[in-house]
Design brief:
Length: 239
């Protein structure tokens, strides 16, 4: 259960407005329904693609008490930002903080997830016993990317495999995936009780494209629209 923002810009933009927007979502934004409702306080991460390489900052603390000045000063063309609310019984430490990074086929992929996949140990992928549902999800995506599937095809195929394996235990597989040249956003199937929490919104202009779990004030990026369940959006830096 998390809050997240993805950015793809024609020219480098400062991260500050996105860092601040996510911090507000994490502390004051929507919370999951039910007894687990609390702020998104279990760590945060910022990944910025700048000058052909990634800058990746993560902290284990709540975002609103973190050392945000370093992240605010970053500038790049692609960004993933994530504030975590850990699912029950999952470890809260730096290694479990999104975005996750992995190198494959000459690129570094960044991945983050908003949701819970219960019974994730049933997924057919080799992972350590302590791997979270998101780590298993990302490992399955990586297998497909290594097999030369495109990012969007890999993400869609993985989501469908998760649904076929664990069914309704896949509470949400909403995800953002990027290699620094392409940004993919996917909103999966959403159960009725989570329809207003597991949201993704997109805003697009010729110069700036943004996806976020909640809308925020963003001059110059057009109006926000909500993504439909099982909708995928693919943005490319050269398009």
């Amino acid at each position: 259960m998390c809050r997240m923002i993805g950015v793809l810009a024609r020219e480098p933009v400062e991260a500050a407005q996105f860092v601040d927007a996510l911090m507000v979502q994490a502390r004051d934004g929507k919370r999951p329904p039910g007894p687990r409702s609390r702020p998104h306080e279990d760590g945060y991460g910022v990944a910025v693609y700048s000058g052909g390489h990634w800058i990746h900052i993560r902290e284990q603390c709540p975002m609103w008490v973190g050392a945000l000045d370093a992240s605010r000063r970053l500038c790049g063309t692609v960004m993933l930002l994530h504030a975590r609310l850990a699912s029950p019984d999952l470890r809260i430490d730096l290694t479990k903080t999104h975005p996750f990074a992995a190198a494959t086929n000459g690129s570094t992929l960044m991945f983050c997830h908003n949701g819970t996949i219960r019974a994730a140990e049933r997924l057919p992928v080799a992972c350590p016993d302590h791997a979270t549902d998101t780590e298993r999800y990302f490992a399955l995506v990586l297998e497909r990317v290594k097999a030369k599937q495109g990012l969007s095809d890999a993400l869609l195929a993985t989501a469908e495999m998760i649904y076929s394996t664990v069914g309704e235990d896949a509470v949400s597989v909403n995800a953002l995936l990027t290699d620094g040249r392409e940004l993919v956003a996917y909103r999966g199937r959403i159960t009725p009780q989570n329809m207003n929490y597991h949201t993704l919104f997109v805003a697009e202009s010729p110069a700036l494209r943004v996806v976020s779990t909640e809308p925020f004030d963003l001059p110059g990026a057009g109006d926000w629209r909500g993504m439909a369940p099982q909708e995928i959006v693919v943005w490319r830096a050269d398009a």
